[in-house]
């Protein structure tokens, strides 16, 4: 199939499906969504092979499309202003109005009529890797959403289903997201960017509770702020260089200093979308949305659009002040988000903070701007999307199983919901430990940060080290809560709840986990076949050597599959070989005051049987939002200001 | 990896328990002498080990036993990799996994003592992890590689250019070796407010496994210290032994501290010292990577 | 298992439980750990956790309230294990004999291997008792 057709399918098919979903009956929704999802996955794979074989594709649709987009865009921008009026939200109104005015001025007054940024779409390897993540992980999450939303609405006891609206935005979003990563013309990019903002707003407020509305508005104004930054950057780019094509910006190596300011503004736009400090609050608020939304928009794809933009522009600001500061800023976000996550006991908020941290790491890597760093960034985007998407879906299933998002309510879940808890634990181990993919990227990023890419590198590397230790704390504690189990002597063996583990939701989770594990074990072939070419296509020299399926940098050596086998053996053999005979089982130590009962129970005052309660420690006074937020946001704003001011000066 | 690396690594795996156990025995003997006691024989640890092996099996949950095996096997893997001169970053990542396994083992029993111990254990990891990672980075800035083999090729003792990082590593070691003032997750001696914290629910041979792991850990850590004077290596070994002796003195004169003290000391002093050292490298010694 | 049997004698770890003693004997037990007597030279450790211990050292008579605690601690010790009653009270009830709440010596509740008499038992006597206990330990197959 021709590349143009594939691109068209990837962008238009989700949108068409979304529109059709509004029209059809509820019973037809499943086939209507599952079939295009499969097509989407196939199309993205085919596009990947095309690009790998024939190099980047460019594509400019017929001029009529330009007008269609212009009309839609104006409608969209007007809609944001309308939202500001209806919801009486000053910031939305102000930023929406500003955006609208700026866009009209730019499009109709400053830009010569008939101006075209050629080509409109440009699909190189980086774009196609992102497209693959969006289509594969995205389609899986959408399929998962089918079951999830049924349960969700049953739980909420809605009189009339609102699923058609939900899937309209969720599926349509995939097309917009593909559009963002394929766009070359900044005008097109801006259009798709705004659509993702729109989808994000509607999906967050989907449940229509007061909290949901409020969070949605916060997400909206922050993303509109990003939109304004993007638009301003675009205007400046045009004034300075007369072009609106990303290819022109990134094609010829580092740009002149005059273009740095628009680039910095693009980065700021990226930070709002990727919820970097000080914009992190919208992502945390967004956790009220149904879980497929969190998985799709707020971890696997939409927030990635932000870091994608930063990464895409990396060749343009290579070696500049902007690059150096981006590295420090990203590492800073990585650190503080990880620290803040320590104090969180709501599972989705932990995931949100950890997402922010990972995105910060990508920004940091883009700022480091060497071949190794860019490779690590691309790898992290892939691994993070798969793993974090997986973890969100797992949390969604748990939440519907125990009707709580609180990690404390998950104590000992491994005995109650063994399958999903096992998947969760594996997912977290994949997220956290050698030899899995995310750790591979951490290994590469510490190496990249330790090479003196700029005078500020010690700061970046210190932030990275502190952040990665902090990441350890909250993941280990979470796993610890899940496996915290009463002794078999204290309780009758807990009845595992019947889990619908053959259902589609579980299937999706299984396949994501299998994907994450397989990609980790095969990290070296992945690097050699996909990541190194991507890095090379962006104009860097690939720094990872994959001979013998080992990963070697000029400075270090890591053999994923060997370690994979050894560590799997070290953990699996005991599982198979360690046996406890019933007579060996003992109750836990409770100072000799054990009372035979279900669960560890001791005799307390007046011989009352008191259950021994254990709980997670969250160190809220040290790492809580209340104690850290002011400092974190302050430092974030200072860093951003330094970014902009430094670029101007 | 050459055949030589393999054989050194395997030899280390075989010998480390003997060295580690003996060092722990000397530790107990010296501690006793510092307190004016005669103390146990220096091979006391081996007696303890075999006695524990011979005890009747007892357990609370299967999970805790599985994780403790993971703790042992992963620690052994790190020892092998260090002596086979592999990538230091990867070694410390695996060491973190091993440490997490210990915490998981304690987490998987709903026992108040081991749960508190497990939480403190992860606080300890939060304290020493950054120091170890940054120490590796500081070494990298001098040798230009993360591999242990690079340190041997470097020729000059690292201690000359990394004195502050070395001091920071000492702070991390105190935590990792579970010595006062930072033995907060599980006290090694008879301080008993946690009934030995993370180890509370283990008995018999599983306690022996933990002891064995400690011996491996001790060898690993002292070997890492020795890397600061890798050429000639015997000075490094003496350095490591001197450091161990220093830790003993600190252990005996210090009271135990709370976790927040541990965290602030290791982050402010430990990380701060390494940062200072990196700046020193940049200003005075020259960074090998800026050619 | 020659090695294990030998090691057993060299490394008795103690858990000390004070039933309802007057604390006289407890102080003497702690005195054993001091530099003057230093039982650690025999490998003795005061370990404080029954799951780790080999030797249960009990002071004071057992009463109605703590009998179950004593039993529980004894049961949580993995075999082979020994019990040593320290002081007249632990052996027979001593001065508390026939009190309304006292059951008597601890051998009313758990099997005792070594009796160390005295009120309070002297550290020398306690160390003697430990040595006797080790002797018995060496005979356990
Ligand atoms: S034997 Fe004497 S010293 Fe010991 S507990 Fe009884 S009364 Fe106290």
The molecules bound to the chains, other than polymers, are: iron/sulfur cluster
- Low-confidence spans of chain B: none
DSSP helix fraction of chain B: over 70%
Average pLDDT over all residues of chain A: 86
The counted number of beta strands of chain B is 0
The low-confidence runs of chain A, each spanning 5 or more residues with pLDDT under 50, are none
The neighbouring-strand order within the major sheet of chain A is 1-2
Summed over residues and divided by their number, the pLDDT of chain B gives a mean of: 87
Broad structural category of chain B: mainly alpha
Number of helices of chain A: 25
**Biggest interface between chains:** A-B, 70 and 68 residues
Number of strands of chain A: 6
Strand content of chain A: under 5%
Shape of chain B: globular
Share of β-strand residues of chain B: under 5%
Q: What is the share of helical residues of chain A? A: over 70%
**Biggest sheet of chain B, in brief?**
none
Alpha plus pi helix count of chain B = 10
Structure explained in plain terms:
The complex is a heterotrimer of chains A (649), B (291) and C (141). Chain A is built from 25 helices and 6 strands. By secondary structure, chain A is mainly alpha-helical. Chain A has a domain of 276 residues. The longest helix of chain A has 32 residues. The relative contact order of chain A is 0.09. The model of chain A has no long low-confidence stretch (mean pLDDT 86). Chain B has 291 residues and is mainly α. Chain B has one domain. In chain B, 71% of the residues lie in helices and 0% in strands. Chain B contains 10 helices and no strands. The radius of gyration of chain B is 19 Å and the shape is globular. Chain C has 141 residues and is an alpha/beta fold. Chain C has a single domain, classed as 3-Layer(aba) Sandwich (Rossmann fold). Chain C is built from 5 helices and 7 strands, in the order H-E-H-E-E-E-H-E-H-E-E-H. In chain C, the strands form 2 sheets. Chain C has a 5-stranded parallel beta sheet. A two-stranded antiparallel ribbon of chain C has the order 4-6. In chain C, helix 1 packs antiparallel against helix 5 and helix 2 packs across helix 5. The mean pLDDT of chain C is 88. Chains A and B meet through helix 19, helix 20, strand 4 and helix 23 of A and helix 3, helix 4, helix 5 and helix 10 of B. The structure holds iron/sulfur cluster. The site of iron/sulfur cluster has 13 residues of chain C, from helix 2 and helix 4.
């Amino acid at each position: 199939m021709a590349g143009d057709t594939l691109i068209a399918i990837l962008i238009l098919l989700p949108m068409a499906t979304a529109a059709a979903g509004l029209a059809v009956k509820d019973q037809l929704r499943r086939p209507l969504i599952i079939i295009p999802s499969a097509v989407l996955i196939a199309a993205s794979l085919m596009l990947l092979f095309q690009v790998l074989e024939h190099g980047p594709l460019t594509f400019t649709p017929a001029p009529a499309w330009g007008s269609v987009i212009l009309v839609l865009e104006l409608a969209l921008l007007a809609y944001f202003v309308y939202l500001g009026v209806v919801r009486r939200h000053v910031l939305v109104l102000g930023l929406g109005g500003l955006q609208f005015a700026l866009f009209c001025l730019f499009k109709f007054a400053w830009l010569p009529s008939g101006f075209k940024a050629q080509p409109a779409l440009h699909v190189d390897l980086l774009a196609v890797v992102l497209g693959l993540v969006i289509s594969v992980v995205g389609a899986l999450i959408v399929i998962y959403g089918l079951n999830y939303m049924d349960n969700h609405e049953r739980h909420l006891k809605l009189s009339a289903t609102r699923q058609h609206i939900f899937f309209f935005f969720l599926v349509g979003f995939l097309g917009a997201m593909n559009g963002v990563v394929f766009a070359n013309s900044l005008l097109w990019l801006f259009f798709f960017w705004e659509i993702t903002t729109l989808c994000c707003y509607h999906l967050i407020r989907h449940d229509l509770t007061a909290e949901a509305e409020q969070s949605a508005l916060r997400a909206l104004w922050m993303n509109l702020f990003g939109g304004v930054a993007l638009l301003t950057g675009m205007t400046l780019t045009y004034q300075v260089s007369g072009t609106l094509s990303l290819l022109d910006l990134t094609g010829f190596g580092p740009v002149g200093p005059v273009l740095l300011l628009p680039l910095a503004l693009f980065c700021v736009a990226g930070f709002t979308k990727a919820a970097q400090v000080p914009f992190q609050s919208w992502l945390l608020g967004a956790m009220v949305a149904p879980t497929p939304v969190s998985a799709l928009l707020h971890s696997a794809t939409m927030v990635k659009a932000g870091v994608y933009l930063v990464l895409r522009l990396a060749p343009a600001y290579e070696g500049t002040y902007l690059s150096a500061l981006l590295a420090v800023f990203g590492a800073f976000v990585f650190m503080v988000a990880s620290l803040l996550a320590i104090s969180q006991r709501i599972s989705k908020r932990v995931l949100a903070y950890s997402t922010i941290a990972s995105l910060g790491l990508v920004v940091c890597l883009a700022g480091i701007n060497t071949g190794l760093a860019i490779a690590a960034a691309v790898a992290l985007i892939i691994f993070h999307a798969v793993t974090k998407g997986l973890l969100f879906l797992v949390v969604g299933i748990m939440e519907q199983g125990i009707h709580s998002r609180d990690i404390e309510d998950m104590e000992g879940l491994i005995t109650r919901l063994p399958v999903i808890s096992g998947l969760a634990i594996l997912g977290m181990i994949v997220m956290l430990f050698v030899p899995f993919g995310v750790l591979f990227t951490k290994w590469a990023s510490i190496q990249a940060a330790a090479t003196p890419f700029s005078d500020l590198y010690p700061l970046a590397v210190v932030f990275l080290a502190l952040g990665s230790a902090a990441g350890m704390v909250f993941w280990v504690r979470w796993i610890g809560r899940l496996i915290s189990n009463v002794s078999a002597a204290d309780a009758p063996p807990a009845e595992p709840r019947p889990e619908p583990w053959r259902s589609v939701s579980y299937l999706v989770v299984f396949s994501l986990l299998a994907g994450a594990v397989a990609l980790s074990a095969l990290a070296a072939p992945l690097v050699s076949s996909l990541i190194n070419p991507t890095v090379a296509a962006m104009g860097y020299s690939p720094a990872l050597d994959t001979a013998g399926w080992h990963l070697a940098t000029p400075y270090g050596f890591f053999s994923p599959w060997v370690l994979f086998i050894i560590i799997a053996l070290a953990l699996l053999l005991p599982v198979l070989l360690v046996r406890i005979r019933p007579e060996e089982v003992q109750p836990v130590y409770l100072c000799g005051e054990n009372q035979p009962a279900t669960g560890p129970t001791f005799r307390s005052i007046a011989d009352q049987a008191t259950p021994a309660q254990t709980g997670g420690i969250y160190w809220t006074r040290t790492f809580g939002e209340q104690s850290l937020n002011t400092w974190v946001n302050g430092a974030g704003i200072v860093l951003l200001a330094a970014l902009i001011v430094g670029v101007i000066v | 990896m050459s055949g030589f690396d393999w054989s050194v690594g395997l030899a280390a795996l075989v010998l480390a328990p003997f060295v580690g156990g003996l060092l722990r025995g000397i530790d107990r003997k010296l501690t006793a002498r510092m307190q004016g006691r005669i103390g146990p024989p220096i091979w006391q640890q081996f007696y303890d080990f075999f006695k524990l092996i011979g005890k009747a099996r007892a357990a609370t949950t299967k999970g805790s036993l599985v994780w403790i095996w993971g703790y042992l096997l992963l620690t052994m893997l790190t020892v092998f990799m260090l002596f086979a001169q592999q990538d230091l970053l990867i070694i410390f990542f695996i060491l973190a996994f091993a440490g997490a396994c210990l915490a998981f083992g304690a987490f998987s029993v709903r026992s108040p003592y081991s749960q508190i111990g497990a939480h403190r254990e992860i606080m300890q990891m939060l304290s020493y992890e950054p120091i170890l990672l940054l120490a590796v980075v500081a070494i990298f800035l001098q040798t230009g590689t993360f591999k242990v083999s690079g340190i041997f090729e470097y020729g000059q003792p690292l201690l000359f250019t990394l004195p502050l990082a070395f001091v920071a590593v000492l702070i991390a070691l105190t935590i990792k070796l579970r010595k006062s003032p930072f033995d907060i997750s599980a006290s090694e001696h008879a301080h008993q407010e946690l009934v030995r914290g993370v180890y509370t629910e283990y008995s018999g041979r599983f306690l022996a496994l933990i002891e064995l792991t400690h011996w491996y850990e001790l060898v690993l850590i002292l070997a890492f210290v020795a890397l600061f004077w890798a050429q000639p290596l015997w000075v490094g070994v003496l350095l490591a032994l001197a450091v161990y002796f220093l830790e003993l003195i600190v252990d005996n004169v210090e009271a135990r501290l709370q976790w927040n003290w541990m965290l602030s000391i290791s982050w402010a002093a430990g990380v701060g010292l390494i940062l200072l050292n990196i700046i020193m490298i940049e200003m005075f010694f020259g960074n090998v990577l800026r050619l | 298992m020659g090695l294990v049997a030998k090691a057993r004698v060299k490394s008795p770890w103690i858990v000390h439980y004070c039933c309802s003693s007057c604390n006289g004997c407890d102080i003497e037990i702690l005195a054993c750990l001091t530099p003057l007597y230093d039982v650690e030279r025999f490998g003795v450790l005061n370990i404080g956790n029954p799951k780790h211990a080999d030797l249960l050292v009990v002071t004071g008579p057992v009463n109605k309230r703590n009998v179950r605690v004593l039993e529980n601690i004894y049961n949580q010790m993995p075999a082979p294990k020994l019990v040593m009653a320290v002081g007249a009270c632990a052996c027979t009830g001593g001065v508390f004999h026939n009190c309304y709440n006292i059951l008597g010596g601890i051998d009313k509740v758990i099997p005792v291997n070594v009796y160390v008499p005295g009120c309070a038992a002297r550290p020398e006597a306690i160390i003697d008792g430990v040595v006797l206990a080790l002797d018995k330990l060496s005979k356990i197959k």
